Amino acid sequence: MRKTIIAGNWKMNKTHKEAAETLKKLAELVIDRENLGGVEVIIGAPFTALESAVRATENTPIAIAAENMNANESGAFTGEISATMLKELGVEYVILGHSERRAMYGETDAIVNAKVLAALKAGLKPILCIGEQLEDRETGKTNEVNGTQLKGGLSGVSVEDMKNVIVAYEPVWAIGTGVTATPEMAEETHAFVRSVLVELYGNDVAEEVTIQYGGSMKPENAKELLAQKNIDGGLVGGAALDAEVFYGIIAAGK
Prior knowledge:
Blueprint: E1 5-9, H1 16-30, E2 40-45, H2 50-56, E3 62-66, H3 83-89, E4 93-96, H4 99-105, H5 109-122, E5 125-130, H6 134-138, H7 142-153, E6 166-169, H8 183-201, H9 203-208, E7 211-213, H10 219-226, E8 233-236, H11 243-252
Parallel strand pairs: 1-2, 1-8, 2-3, 3-4, 4-5, 5-6, 6-7
Helix pairs in contact: 1-2, 1-11, 5-7, 7-8, 10-11
């Protein structure tokens, strides 16, 4: 039985005080693990809010993720944060390869892969993001793009380490646009992603990997999306900024 994991990605939002306040509200909603129906909850917070976020979620079912990291352990990398630094703070997950990092900061599959390997080495659990642009979908390259990003991001990742990797499929054309892939469209790509995981790691491992959907999931469409066979959760952007709204998505996964 695959885990249903709902993760919020706050992006560049929330001061450390705002983070603590939001997480206090969210924790009150999800504090009883039995009420979650087996759904696991993660919040990705900005670097400056991570310590506050970890403290605010102690003794709650909410885990904390960083939104990025550097692949190097230490050194002359001004402004960067290492996996070791994150691990020491009590962070459990890290979001890597997000479409915004790829598009705005030029992160290649090789860069993302180096970060994935460094995260695993440090004991963090990567949420590996993949996804196609609108042009890719319109020209029939959806599977080609996602397959390349997935294989590139997981290069050198062992069967054992795959137990600690989440894959997040985010159709870039449906992020922040209000446009959502239909559940059937999303399922089709999720099924393809799982087929690539079968190719790389075999059926048993592939069937255990959580594949999240990251294209404008909200309370109104979450239940139908999560009902699909290969959609095992969500990587949620704007809808995760409000505790009540985000809990509506969590509740849809029960």
